[in-house]
Amino acid sequence: MTTMAHKxxxxxxxxxxxxxxxxSGVQTLTFAKALTLAMAxxxxxxxxxxxxxxxxxxxxxxxRVTDGxxxxxxxxxxxxxxxxxxxxxxxATGMAINGMxxxxxxxxxxxxxxxxxxITSHVAKMGNRTKGKVRLPIVIRxxxxxxxxxVEHHCDSSEAYYVHTPGLTVLTPSxxxxxxxxxxxxxASPDPVIFLEPKKLYFSKDTVDVDALRARYGAGSTAPSxxxxxxxxxxxxxxTLIAYGPSMAAALAAAETAAAEGRSLQVVDxxxxxxxxxxxxxxxxxxxxxxxxIAEAPGFAxxxxxxxxxIQERCFHSLAAPVLRVTGFDIPFPAPRLEKYYLPGVDRILxxxxxxxxxxx
Length: 361
Prior knowledge:
The chain is α/β, with parallel strands linked by helices. 33% of the residues lie in helices and 19% in strands.
């Protein structure tokens, strides 16, 4: 393994970044492949970018998101670690202090909890502790949330812990394009990023222009960062659905069903939990006067609660009804057979939309 005092170079006898054929042009990519491509492209242009974690090397990760990175860049650039999450984050912190850009994988959402003290006490606070003299460009990739028939410790929606911790940027993409661009932006950030990857989306597909995606990060590009920017995923005029990450598919499906029934629902994809894009979210709610916030995590003291509070504070005089929520229940994640009852679905979303005091409009 490379010492922290020097930037890593490909091992002798391993392929150089130019040795393997690169994807180009219009391609159909899975969400997972877009993440792989984002890491590979970042590693190709910046030798200080490293990828490591449990089983990310030879195996390519449990979900194969790091597949091929060790083969392409060598074991100095993408390597396996012991099963010790606190050690992984501690090592990443030391590497970042010494000029590297670690991209680490926690394998599953709840597996990150043993590293929580390192994340909250050191990763999140180092910049403030040193008055900005020491910044930690660490990306902590966390496969999270449900929808795969897993059990507890494998399907937690743990975003509330991270968004409550000042000093952390928290992102969660929901599309193939965003998987690429948001991870590239996270790796380019000079500060620590919690990058939450919805496991249920890993094998979703979309057609993208790989060259156009790369051009966003080429010399002279003025493309804005995705950090701190929500997007309107679907236009609508009757009410606004606000969702992110693993809940976006249900929100869009609910809007599609509502359209068939004569109701126009706008959908906002938050994308960046911290920093939060108040401007886009509030403009969307003001345009419809009604809003429902959707998230898989339990509702009590949640990210959904924070979004509701921000909307109510900023849009109160534009609201025709209180902002409502559709969330997971305040219980541990259930067994696979019960998962469909726990996760926000189209019926629960549309039932909640019907509660937005339409009779008073």
